[in-house]
Amino acid sequence: MAKRFLIFSQYFPPEIGASQTRLAALARALKASGNEVEIVTALPHHLKGRIFTDYRGKLYLRDSWEGITVHRTWLYASPSSGVLQRLLNYCSFAATALFGLLRAQKADYIFVESPPLFLILPAVAFSMIRKVPIILNVADLWPESVKMLGVVRNPVLLAVAGRLEDWAYRRSRYVNAVTDGIQRRLLERLAVAESSLLFLPNGVDTSQYYPRPPDSELVAKLSLQDKKVFIYAGTHGLAYKLDLLLDLAQRLEDRNIAVLLVGDGFTKASLIKRATEHSIRNIIFVDSQPESEMPRYFSLACGSILPLSNNPLFEGTRPAKLFTSLASGVPVVYSGAGEGSRILLDAKAGLVVPPESLKDIEDAVLTLATNQAIHRQMADSGRSYVTEHFKWDNLVGEWLSELREREFHRGVRW
User: Fold this and answer.
1) Which of 11, 76, 155, 253 has its CA 20 to 30 A from that of 21?
2) Are the beta carbons of 164 and 117 closer than 8 angstroms?
3) Residue 118 has what DSSP assignment?
4) Which of 77-81, 97-101, 103-107, 282-286 has the lowest mean pLDDT?
């Protein structure tokens, strides 16, 4: 029997980012499997620090995305990354979102994306009004992650956030983890019952991302003729030590190697400034691109670099960009430890080096750039691995089966 899912998130296309890509893939897969889907989200603003031009001046907008109804409500958007501005951003959407939720049709489940954790407040209000069970999708453990990154240090704010986190888990019928590390933390430290825990990891659309020859138009546009290109595609933020890629480019200027950074984020301006001041010629910055354009950029790449910050928090992550690289037949240089590195080693599709080790990153890049046999073997292995294990349709199908089984044991008819 088909079910109706209401996906509730502060972030959704046309914004670009990991959560936007994940939720878009979930919505497509749910719809393709015969279920009904609606979305409640904010007016697009992410990474720009302002509401996108076509959406300004509106408090509420109902539109359509790939045939799915989307309800968008206003929020405070600011280019500043300060704690107060972030809180205003999160809380303003939490305040207006209930209006969008109540405009949606009756759902069987509300799927709530966290972070930001504040969305649990309107979600619980909606759940009580409409008698709809909550599935809380934990893509990042708040407040643990913001504490470990030093984004929030105020002990009072952290204590309040910890209470909100505990309450959120109690009010959710199911808590969904996106990594093994998050799943373990939910079970062991946060005491989420195993019967209430679901698992839906990041995946990739292998029909969109696949090996292809370099896009000649982009090669000419970016002046990449006869260059071995290494790409970082994603948010320019605290999770990644992107300044290392400037150092890398500078050290490889005479090796016909170019470093391509695609995306936006609050560290991007400082990276561009430094590259300009030091006249680093073989590093290229490209603004965030629509998801439909990203396969063209991956077609340019000899390899992908994921230079994670040296923080224990990231040992439990499996970056979405890892899977898009492998599906594209692009081997990965993974500078980090933990879950993502284990997946890459299991796939035999890249090289793992210690976090923040510039010399090791350089050696790995040179290996992929100069050893065609290793490169081809890793490219083929990565593509095969994600096709077998991380296709979105398969992951969502398995997740629906798990949800159906849990509901059966609760006595809920499906």
Assistant:
1) 76
2) yes
3) G
4) 77-81
What does residue 299 show for φ and ψ, rounded to 5 degrees?
A: -65, -20
Contact 145, 182 (CB under 8 A): no
Residue 104 CA to residue 107 CA, distance in Å, equals 8
> d(Cα 301, Cα 324) in Å, to the nearest integer?
12
The amino acid that residue 82 corresponds to is: G
Quote the tokens at residue 306. 């994921």
Alpha-carbon gap, residue 156 to 46, rounded angstroms: 27
String of DSSP letters for 292-309? GGHHHHHTTEEEEEEEB-
Q: How far apart are CA 117 and CA 121, in angstroms?
A: 8
Does the pLDDT of residue 350 top 90, yes or no?
A: yes
Tell me the average pLDDT across 337-345.
95
Are 283 and 258 within 8 A, CB to CB? yes
Closest CA relative to residue 287, chosen from 348, 220, 233: 233
Q: What's the gap between Cα 212 and its chain centre?
A: 24
Q: Output DSSP code: residue 175.
A: E
Check residue 150 and give its pLDDT.
Answer: 67
CA–CA separation, 95 vs 184, rounded Å? 32
Contact 350, 332 (CB under 8 A): yes
Question: Alpha-carbon distance 324 to 379, whole Å?
Answer: 12
Q: Given pLDDT bands bounded at 50, 70 and 90, which one contains residue 412?
A: confident
Tokens of 60: 């509420």
* Three-state secondary structure call for residue 12: coil
